[in-house]
Design goal:
Elements (H helix, E strand, L loop, with lengths): L1 H17 L13 H4 L28 H15 L1 H24 L5 H27 L6 H31 L4 H19 L3 H11 L2 H34 L8 H6 L1 H9 L1
Helix pairs in contact: 3-4, 4-5, 4-9, 5-6, 6-7, 6-8, 7-9, 8-9
Length: about 270
């Protein structure tokens, strides 16, 4: 019986060995993933694909200065009002020092104090204005958006700010209200004309290439030179107004003669 079972098992094995395999061999599927498999980065052969590497802003590629810009950006995001207030004080302080140096005057701390008071009153409203300008007038056309922002800024903000600046300079100097109005009429028109030569380009560049948290410091660097010009223009208007009221040198206010004796003497002799 056992022999019969062994023979039957042997015959079944022989049959199976001769039966052909009806299933076709599995073929590897060639997919897009297998064809475009990137090289191993560890082997040093990986090549960056264009338009996948983010371009760093220019202020993040300035070496040690980048840390200062980054610290300013963090402070701007956490405490925007305090950052703007302090930044404005620094800008006005540097602008006034530069203007006094250009005029050839002896340093007048009262004049610097007036500039800081004006800065304290304008820092937050100026910041709120430019935030409003950045969040509005955004159209599908970038050219139209920039043109609208520049136009609105020059038509609305510039005359109001310049009137505030020159009016406060005159008022804090002790002038009467008619004299304050005369100072505004003497200085604001020419300052608006000259601002058109600078600020439209600065505004357009700022809203195009500068992130929101860095726009104030970018404008602040430009504003140092602009505040120098405004202080110089205010000083010239102050001297011209005093000379028009005086018919003799001894009638000129003493504070005018002490600040710029060379300029006033030359104009009186002329």
């Amino acid at each position: 019986m056992a022999v019969f079972a062994m023979k039957a098992a042997g015959r079944s094995l022989l049959r199976r060995s001769h039966i052909p395999n009806r299933q076709p061999p599995l073929q590897k599927r060639h997919t897009a993933t297998s064809r475009t498999k990137p090289d191993d980065p560890a082997g040093g052969t990986a090549i960056p694909v264009p338009n996948t590497v983010a371009t760093l802003p220019i202020w993040q590629r300035l070496g040690p200065l980048s840390r200062g810009f980054q610290a300013y950006g963090r402070s701007q995001r956490k405490r925007p009002y305090a950052t703007q207030f302090v930044s404005s004080l620094v800008i006005y302080f540097l602008g006034d020092l530069s203007a006094q140096n250009i005029n050839g005057d002896e340093y007048d701390p009262k004049r610097t104090l007036r500039a800081l008071i004006i800065s304290a009153g304008s820092s937050i409203p100026s910041y709120k204005w430019f935030m409003f300008l950045g969040n509005n007038f955004n159209y599908s056309s970038k050219v139209l958006s920039l043109a609208t922002k520049v136009t609105v800024n020059q038509a609305c903000f510039t005359p109001i700010f310049n009137s505030y600046f020159f009016g406060m300079q005159s008022l804090l100097s002790g002038d009467s209200l008619p004299e304050v109005w005369e100072r505004i009429k003497r200085t604001v028109p020419i300052s608006m004309i000259n601002s058109c030569k600078l600020w439209p380009a600065v505004t357009a560049f700022s809203f195009t290439f500068i992130d929101a948290q860095y726009r104030s410091i970018f404008a602040g660097v430009i504003a140092i030179g602009w505040q120098t010009y405004l202080s110089f223009l205010n000083r010239r208007a102050e001297v011209e107004g005093a000379l028009e009221k005086a018919t003799h040198p001894h009638e000129i206010p003493e504070r005018i003669l002490q600040k710029s004796p060379r300029e006033e003497t030359q104009k009186i002799e002329a």
